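Sample entry follows:

:::
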Amino acid sequence: MNVKVLPGLLMAALALAACSHPSPWKEYVYADQHFAVAFTAPPKAGKEMGPFLAEMNDGKTDLGVTAACNLPPGANPAQLVDSATERTRENGTVHDITAITLGQTAGRQMLVDQASGPTVTQRVFVKNGCLYLVFAASKDGPKSEAVTRFLDSFRFL
């Protein structure tokens, strides 16, 4: 065997070994709120005097979903998304607002610069009689892998 090939094979073996470690991300299903999402650690979840909240904050990354599933029958989803977007302005400077879809459900994504803390990426959806605010912030920035992975893991049941 050629000696120059050996380091290359060793690097390839190490790369494959690194890929075989289990992901720290685990999906959590919230059937009563009609959604599932992945966290890197068990989230705190429940209702305390308001909408349902599932959130994990490790000091570097804050990931969460708020689900208000008490919408009045016949509520207009587009108006609710607009209203939630406007109410988000109370939390900081809102910018980069874009229309998004999850499956066939229209929603909105925005960045929220807070007075203290990292920029939050938030998505707003209305489906199954629930208003969902899916949010993620990281000290690594709004385009960090953790923010993207969390937001993209959210799904409706």
Residues 23-156 form a domain with the Protein Transport Mog1p; Chain A fold (CATH 3.40.1000.10). Residues 5-19 form the longest helix (15 residues).
